[in-house]
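Q: Mind making up any chain with structure tokens?
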Amino acid sequence: MDKAESWLYKTLHYRFEDAGLFEDAGLLNQALTHRSATGRNNERLEFLGDAVLDLVISDAVYRARPEAPEGDLSRLRSSLVKEKTLAALAAELGVGDYLILGSGEKKTGGHRRESILADALESIVGAVFLDGGIEAATEIIERVFAQRLDDLPAADQLRDPKTRLQEWLQGRGRGLPEYELVNISGQAHRQMFEVSCSVDETASVTHGTSTTRRKAEQKAAAEMLAILLENQT
């Protein structure tokens, strides 16, 4: 058993049964091989693992929230399978220490890059699925995501501020918020956007500033929602 296999067994209690299924590497080595390296890489396993992960997490969320509507279930699933979450999980597991990277990626810290870590975790899921079937993949996924599945947030916490503000207003029969670009400052490659948010029947006007207009709008919406919630009767 090589170092990667020992690590996988120690962290996820899984041992691959494939006997050189591919000409130049076993499934685990392929799952850990980035496209920048020579040999068979993990892109195909990532494709498969992504689908398996979506299925298993969808089932877990569906069971965890039996009364949640489809939209809330989608948001909960997305929060668990998005790149940032997968990368964080991969880092916690130590996946980066076993990645097989090309020289360029090694020099630029590819073992810490979110996209590479997330893809590798999906690839491992795909490899386990091929090796042990859906039951083995499900067991691995549930072990990896156990804490996050236990700590699922309320669905409304996953909606972005603009969506929550709009839904709050619509639920009370009020008009939609208006966003206005107030100012753009800084050099072309480092611009800052300031956006205002106003709501009918509300004297307050909130502002948000960020590196993109969308982010600035979200900040302004969050401020407006906080004011409305504080003043609601």
